[in-house]
C-alpha cells in the first residue's frame, strides 16, 4: 500500500464502460416498476439520499448517479427513505455492488437546526418544503439501515456531511467532540471531497471482483485500520507542531513571518534543501523527517479520546488537518478511535477541465423525479435556471466549509461547456423565460483563477491565497470570465444573466473592467456581498479582508453603475458572534452600518459547522491559524445566549424591538451618549413617544423591505 502518485492518477474518461450497451435512463429509477421499464432485473449501485431526487447537476446524488451511469453501471435512487425500519431500503432489491449513502446537499444537522439550535420549520430540499423527511446525523443512520436491509453488501459514505465529519470533530448541537462518522456508521469506506474520481475507481474495482477491504489506497477516502502498514513511516503530529511547553522544533508548516500570510514556498518541501522566510531572509534547515518518502508517510493525530478531553489538542489536530489538504503535498493522516484507527488518505486530485465538462455534460433531465408531481422543491426552484461554472475556493474563510469539502484549487469548466448548458436550459427547461439566475459556484469570480506556477501550487501550505493580502503568485485575470459573460448574454433567447453567487470583492477590485461589466449587465438593482465585519480582530479570525477593501469596491461599483445609467445598491452581509468578536467590535460595526445607512434585514449568527477552523476556535478557545502551544493565542467567543442576542441586536440597531436591550447594553458599556435623538446616537431615548418612534421606524423600513422582496 502507498499513496497514489498524482502522475499515475487515472482520468475518469479512461475507464472502460462496465455495461457497454447501457443507455442513459430518462430518470434514474426509484422503484421496481421503473426498473422493469428499463429492462433491469437489478441495480448495480443504489444511492440513498436525504434530499428529494432532482436530476440536476447542482444536486449531488443527481451528479453521482449520472456519472456512474455513464461508466456503465445500473444506478437506482432511494430518496428520503423512512429510516425507522429497513423496509424502504429494500424497495429496489439488493444492489450487485454496493450502497452509496449521502445526507444530501447539506449536513443534516445544519439542515435541521438554526444557529440557536432551534428546529427549522421547513426543508428546502424536500418536495413541498416539508421538514422532518431525514434523520439527524443522516449518513450514520442510513448506513446502519443499509446493513440491516442486506447483510454483507458494502456501504460507502459520501456527501458534505461525511466529508466534514471524517475525523473526530466538534459537534455544536451536542456541544461535544464526536467520533468520525466512519466507525459510528460501520461503513466500509468514506469518501471526502467531490466524489467522482473516487467513486468511479471504487465501482470499477468492485466490478472486477476486488474486495472492498483491499481498497485502502484511494486518494480522497477514509478507511478503518488496526495498524500502520509495513513499510510506512509514522510521524507524530506533536513532533511537527508541539502543543506542549517543550523545545520548539523548526516549523515545516511555517508560512512566513505571520502564519496567516506571506508568499508561497517556491519548491516542494520534499525536494528543497532550504526553506527561506522571504520576510526576514532567515534560512531554516528543514528537520530530517521532511526527507521521508511522502507517499509512504502517515501523520498520527491525537486520538479521539485525547482531543475530546483536551481542547488544546483539538485545536492542534484541526491545524494539522487543514495544513495537509493540498493534493500536491498532503500526507496520509491517522487518528485512533478506541482500538482501531481512522486512516485518511491524501485528498483526491481535482478534476481537469475536460473531466469537469464530461461531468456537467451528462444526460440530466434537469427536473425533479416525476413521482413528486406538481409539488415544489424550493432548492430546485432557486437553482433550476442557474449554471455552475467552477468548483473550489482559495479564500479560506474560517467559518466556511467549502475549502474543506471542495478544496482550494479552482476547477473550471470550458466556455463551450457552459454555453451548451445555457442552451439546454433555454431549449428544454419548462417555464424558462430568458433569465439565467446565476453563473457562478462557490464564488462568483474565481473562474479560471489559479497559481501562476504548478510547482508553487503543489508546494504551498497557505490556507488562503487572498489573506491577509492577495498572494503575488496568484493569477487574478478576470478576462476569461468577462469573455464568458459577453458570449453568454449574446445567445439567442437569453434576456438577462444575473450573478447571484458570493463575490470576492477583494479580487474584483483588481479588474475595473470586470466591475463595469458586472454593474452594467448582471445586477438586477441589488448585489449581495459579504464583508462579514468591519473590525480587524474578528476579520483576522475569519481570514477576511479589511473593510477598506469593501469601501474600495463600493466606490468602484457605484461609479460603474452611474456610468451605466443605473441606480443600484449593495446588500452587505455580516456575521454576529463570530470567534474573536467582543461587544465593542459589534458596537463599532453597528455605528459603521448607521453611518453608511445600511439597515440589515436579515441577521446571520455564527454557526460552528463540523471541521471548520472557526469551529475549532469556538470549541478550544485557541487560534489554529497559528502554531498551537499551551501558551498560544487565546480566542474569545461569545457563546452565552444573552451575548449572542446582543450581537444580533446590534446588527439590527434600527429595529424598535431591539432598543430596550441596546439601551441597557450601551449603559453597561459606558456608552450612554449613543442613546438619544441626535444623528450621532445609535438608538433613541425611551419615553412616552416610544410607540410613535416605533411606528415611524416601521414605515421607514417598508420601502427597503419591499425592494428586497422584489429582488
Summarize the structure.
The protein is of the alpha/beta class and 711 residues long. It contains 25 helices and 25 strands.
Structure, explained:
This protein is α/β, with parallel strands linked by helices and 711 residues long. The protein has a domain at 6-226: 3-Layer(aba) Sandwich (Rossmann fold), CATH 3.40.50.2300. The chain contains 25 helices and 25 strands. Strand 14 (332-337) and strand 15 (340-344) form a beta hairpin. Helix 2 crosses helix 7 and helix 21 (583-595) runs parallel beside helix 23. The radius of gyration is 26 Å and the shape is globular. Residues 245-263, 265-290 and 703-711 have low confidence and may be disordered.
Please give the CATH class of the domain at 6-226: Alpha Beta
CATH superfamily of the domain at 6-226: Response regulator
Could you say what the CATH topology of the domain at 6-226 is called? Rossmann fold
Biggest sheet features: 10 strands, mixed
Which descriptor suits the 3D outline?
Answer: globular
- How large is the radius of gyration? 26 Å
Average pLDDT works out at: 90
* Sequence stretches where pLDDT stays below 50 over 5 or more residues: 245-263, 265-290, 703-711
Approximate strand percentage = 5-15%
Amino acid at each position: 500500500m502507498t499513496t497514489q502518485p498524482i502522475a499515475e492518477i487515472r482520468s475518469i474518461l479512461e475507464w472502460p464502460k462496465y455495461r457497454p450497451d447501457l443507455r442513459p435512463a430518462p430518470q434514474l429509477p426509484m422503484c421496481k416498476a421503473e426498473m422493469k421499464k428499463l429492462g433491469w432485473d437489478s441495480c448495480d449501485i443504489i444511492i440513498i439520499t436525504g434530499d428529494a431526487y432532482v436530476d440536476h447537476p447542482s444536486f449531488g446524488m443527481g451528479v453521482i448517479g449520472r456519472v456512474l451511469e455513464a461508466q456503465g453501471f445500473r444506478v437506482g435512487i432511494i430518496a428520503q427513505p423512512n429510516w425507522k425500519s429497513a423496509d424502504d431500503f429494500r424497495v429496489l432489491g439488493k444492489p450487485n455492488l454496493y450502497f452509496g449513502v449521502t445526507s444530501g446537499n447539506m449536513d443534516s444537522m445544519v439542515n435541521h437546526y438554526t444557529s440557536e439550535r432551534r428546529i427549522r420549520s421547513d426543508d428546502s430540499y424536500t418536495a413541498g418544503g416539508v421538514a422532518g423527511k431525514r434523520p439527524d446525523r443522516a449518513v450514520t443512520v442510513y448506513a446502519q439501515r443499509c446493513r440491516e436491509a442486506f447483510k454483507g453488501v458494502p456501504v460507502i459514505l459520501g456527501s458534505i456531511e461525511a466529508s466534514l465529519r471524517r475525523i473526530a470533530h466538534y459537534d455544536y448541537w451536542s456541544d461535544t467532540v464526536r467520533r468520525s462518522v466512519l466507525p459510528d456508521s460501520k461503513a466500509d469506506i468514506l469518501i471526502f471531497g467531490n466524489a467522482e474520481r473516487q467513486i468511479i475507481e471504487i465501482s470499477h474495482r468492485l466490478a472486477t471482483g476486488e474486495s472492498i477491504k483491499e481498497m485502502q489506497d484511494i486518494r480522497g477516502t477514509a478507511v478503518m485500520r488496526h495498524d500502520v502498514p509495513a513499510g510506512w513511516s509514522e510521524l507524530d503530529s506533536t513532533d511537527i507542531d508541539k502543543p506542549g511547553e517543550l523545545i520548539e522544533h523548526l516549523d515545516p508548516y511555517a508560512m512566513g513571518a505571520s502564519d496567516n500570510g506571506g508568499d508561497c514556498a517556491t519548491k516542494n518541501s520534499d525536494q528543497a534543501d532550504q526553506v527561506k522566510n522571504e520576510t526576514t531572509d532567515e534560512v531554516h534547515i528543514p528537520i530530517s523527517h521532511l526527507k521521508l518518502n511522502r507517499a509512504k508517510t502517515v501523520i498520527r493525530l491525537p486520538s479521539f479520546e485525547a482531543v475530546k478531553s483536551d481542547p488544546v489538542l483539538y485545536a492542534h489536530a484541526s491545524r494539522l488537518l487543514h495544513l495537509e489538504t493540498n493534493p500536491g503535498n498532503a500526507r496520509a493522516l491517522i487518528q485512533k478511535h478506541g482500538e482501531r484507527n481512522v486512516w485518511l488518505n491524501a485528498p483526491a486530485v481535482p478534476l481537469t477541465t475536460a473531466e469537469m465538462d464530461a461531468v456537467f455534460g451528462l444526460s440530466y433531465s434537469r427536473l425533479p423525479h416525476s413521482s413528486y408531481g406538481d409539488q415544489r422543491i424550493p432548492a430546485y426552484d432557486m437553482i433550476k435556471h442557474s449554471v455552475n461554472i467552477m468548483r473550489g475556493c482559495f479564500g479560506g474563510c474560517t467559518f466556511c466549509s467549502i475549502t474543506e469539502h471542495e478544496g482550494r484549487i479552482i476547477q473550471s469548466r470550458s466556455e463551450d461547456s457552459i454555453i451548451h448548458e445555457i442552451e439546454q436550459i433555454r431549449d428544454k427547461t419548462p417555464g424558462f423565460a430568458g433569465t439565467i439566475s446565476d453563473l457562478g459556484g462557490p464564488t462568483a469570480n474565481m473562474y479560471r483563477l489559479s497559481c501562476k506556477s504548478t510547482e508553487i501550487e503543489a508546494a504551498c501550505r497557505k490556507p488562503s491565497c487572498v489573506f491577509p493580502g492577495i498572494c503575488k503568485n496568484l493569477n487574478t485575470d478576470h478576462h476569461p470570465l468577462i469573455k464568458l459573460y459577453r458570449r453568454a448574454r449574446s445567445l439567442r433567447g437569453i434576456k438577462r444573466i444575473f450573478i447571484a453567487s458570493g463575490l470576492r470583492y477583494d479580487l474584483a477590485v483588481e479588474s475595473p473592467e470586470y466591475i463595469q461589466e458586472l454593474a452594467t449587465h448582471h445586477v438586477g438593482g441589488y448585489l449581495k456581498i459579504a464583508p462579514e465585519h468591519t473590525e480587524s480582530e474578528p476579520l483576522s479570525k475569519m481570514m477576511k479582508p479589511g473593510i477598506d477593501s469593501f469601501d474600495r469596491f463600493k466606490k468602484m461599483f457605484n461609479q460603474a453603475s452611474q456610468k451605466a445609467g443605473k441606480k443600484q445598491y449593495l446588500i452587505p452581509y455580516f456575521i454576529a458572534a463570530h470567534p474573536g468578536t467582543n461587544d465593542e467590535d459589534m458596537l463599532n460595526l453597528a455605528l459603521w452600518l448607521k453611518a453608511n445607512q445600511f439597515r440589515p434585514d436579515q441577521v446571520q449568527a455564527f454557526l460552528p459547522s463540523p471541521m471548520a477552523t472557526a469551529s475549532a476556535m469556538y470549541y478550544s478557545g485557541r487560534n489554529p491559524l497559528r502554531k498551537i502551544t499551551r501558551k498560544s493565542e487565546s480566542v474569545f467567543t461569545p457563546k452565552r445566549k444573552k451575548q449572542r442576542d446582543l450581537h444580533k441586536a446590534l446588527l439590527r440597531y434600527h429595529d424598535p424591538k431591539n432598543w430596550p436591550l441596546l439601551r441597557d447594553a450601551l449603559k453597561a458599556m459606558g456608552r450612554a451618549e449613543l442613546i438619544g435623538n441626535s444623528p450621532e446616537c445609535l438608538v433613541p431615548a425611551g419615553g412616552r413617544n416610544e410607540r410613535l418612534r416605533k411606528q415611524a421606524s416601521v414605515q421607514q423600513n417598508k420601502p427597503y423591505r419591499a425592494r428586497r422582496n422584489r429582488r
